[in-house]
What does this fold into?
Amino acid sequence: MEIYWYLIPQDGPYPWAEKGRRAIDFDYLAQIARAVDHLGYTGALLATGGGEHDAWVLGSSLIPLTKRMKFIIAVHPGIVAPLMLAQKAATFDQFSDGRLILNMVTGENRQMPPYGIELEHDERYALTDEYWGIWRRLMSGEVVDFEGKYLKLRGAQLKLPALQKPYPKLFFGGSSDPALTVAARHADTYLTWGEPPPLAAEKIQRVRERARALGRNVKFGIRLNLIVRETREEAWDAAQWLLDRMDDAAVAGAQARNRASDSVGQKRMSEIVGGRKPARARDLEIYPDLWAGFGLVRNGPGTAIVGDPETVATRILEYRDIGFDTFIVSGQPLLEETYRVADLLLPLLPFERDCRPSEKLQIGPYFNAARG
It folds into this structure.
């Protein structure tokens, strides 16, 4: 079992509201990375977004500050040429001593036009297919001549080998039929958001069957939020504390953005979450211990496992039993929750932590409020 954390240039006790959002700079992100490294997580996903800190620059700057953690760098295909990405990947992999993973993010109709990519949903996945096929050939040492519908290049060759052979691992997520085909062809690990186990099991089975038809084996990972406390009551009190800070404007804005998205995965998540804020956090429990509250105020992974350490561990092991061996998890705020999860949850999981003994976290005032 591999357990990754999350780095994104938005954080705070409730970052969907200005009052609950922290100012994020390099020093703050470095604190999170050092905690991930110190506490023995496998690594962290460095998410990418429009106009925010660049994941490559951030990851590169964190290499000398860390010793163990792997960097999952999110990449949108088509923004840079495949050869340029191969150079970036090989350089990063060498300099980090083989700690690079790439997360293939096809993007959605709102994300890509600012980068100059205006393609319909299925065309974006066709571009993704061409792009990663070329990239894999380059990383394997081929001289590539290619003329496709979206990409053309002649005499492309990577002269700088990566440390990992034949290339760093590729993670990929997407729920549409074209996405599952791309996953089967190119992904080493297929990622999905935290859907209830029965839905997640059905999705990964479809990817597994397509990959086997191509003679490939794919691993599976899941992106989940966590609200873990010493007791179940404290955990649900923390969920209620968060729900109480989801104001109507934040909910309405997030739901409008999600409805405008052409992402099939987002539509699946929105159907799970619904779009109305109830008074009680427990009314958003869509599966035992699985809470859909985050989906009210954000896109993407909108669910969280809520409970005491034993309860959260049991639910994670349920996901493992249906085929997931990679978990990308997080809590709010990212910095403090690295310690809380490491202290309370990681010792209960079949996960070898390569770390020094954890130092106990001093709880801040917003956690006191969340604990009631």
Notes: Residues 356-372 have pLDDT under 50 and may be disordered.
